[in-house]
UniProtKB/TrEMBL annotation:
It comes from the Bacteria. One of its GO terms (cellular component) is cytosol. This is dTDP-4-dehydrorhamnose 3,5-epimerase. It is an enzyme of class 5 (isomerase). One of its GO terms (molecular function) is dTDP-4-dehydrorhamnose 3,5-epimerase activity. It holds the Pfam family dTDP_sugar_isom. The active site is at residues 62, 132. It catalyses: dTDP-4-dehydro-6-deoxy-alpha-D-glucose = dTDP-4-dehydro-beta-L-rhamnose. Coiled coil: none annotated. CDD domains: cupin_RmlC. Pathway: Carbohydrate biosynthesis; dTDP-L-rhamnose biosynthesis.
Length: 182
C-alpha cells in the first residue's frame, strides 16, 4: 500500500497494490498491520456503510460531533466521484480548509478521514458505489451537515465537468448549516 499525505494534517490518501491479470484484479483494501506500519494508527472499525449514487448526486458534507465522532476509511467500489473533506477541528492549523480528489475504480485510491472532518462527494460517473468503514456507530443525534455550497469554504466542485449548474441533493443536504455557524 502506498501512503500520500495531504495539506490537511491527519488526512491521508492510501493506494493499495492492485494485482491485475486477464481475470480482473485483486487488492487488499485494508490490513490492520500494514495500516499501523504506514500511519502509526490502528483504528477499530465498528460499522461498514455503502452508498450507491447516480451521476450528478452530491452527498454531504456530513460528520458526527463528539462524543460520537467517526474516523472513516473511504473507498470507491465502482464508478468515479470527486471526494471532498473539510477540516472542522477548531484547534487545527488547517481549520476550515478543504481537500478534494477523484476516487475512481481505476486509481483505487482510498481516504483515511480522521474524526473532526466533514465528508462529501459528487458522483462523476453514471453510477458509483462508495464503501466506508467507520470507527463509531451512526448516531442521528450527533449527525451534522455542512452546506455543500458554503461561500466561505468555496469548494470547487466539478459541476461544469458534468455539464450541470447544480447537483442533486437530499433535503437534509440542501439545508446544511453555514460554516460561520460552527
Amino acid at each position: 500500500m502506498n501512503l500520500q499525505t495531504t495539506p490537511l494534517q491527519g488526512l491521508l490518501v492510501l493506494t493499495p497494490n492492485v494485482h491485475r491479470d486477464a481475470r480482473g484484479y485483486f487488492l487488499e483494501s485494508f490490513n490492520s498491520k500494514t495500516f499501523k506500519q504506514l500511519t502509526g494508527l490502528q483504528p477499530e472499525f465498528v460499522q461498514t456503510n455503502e452508498s450507491l449514487s447516480t451521476k450528478g448526486v452530491l452527498r454531504g458534507l456530513h460528520w458526527q460531533e463528539s462524543p460520537k465522532a467517526q474516523g472513516k476509511l473511504v473507498r470507491l467500489v465502482t464508478g468515479a466521484v470527486f471526494d471532498v473533506v473539510v477540516d472542522l477541528r477548531s484547534n487545527s492549523e488547517t481549520f476550515g480548509q478543504w481537500f478534494g480528489c477523484e476516487l475512481n475504480a481505476v486509481n483505487q485510491k482510498q481516504l483515511w478521514i480522521p474524526a473532526g472532518f466533514a465528508h462529501g462527494f459528487l458522483t462523476l460517473s453514471d453510477q458509483a458505489i462508495l464503501n466506508y468503514q467507520v470507527t463509531d456507530f451512526h448516531s442521528p443525534e450527533h449527525e451534522r451537515c455542512l452546506a455543500w455550497n458554503d461561500p466561505v469554504l468555496n469548494i470547487d466542485w466539478p459541476l461544469k465537468k458534468l455539464g450541470i449548474s447544480a447537483p442533486v441533493v437530499s433535503a437534509k443536504d440542501a439545508d446544511g448549516i453555514a460554516f460561520t455557524e460552527l
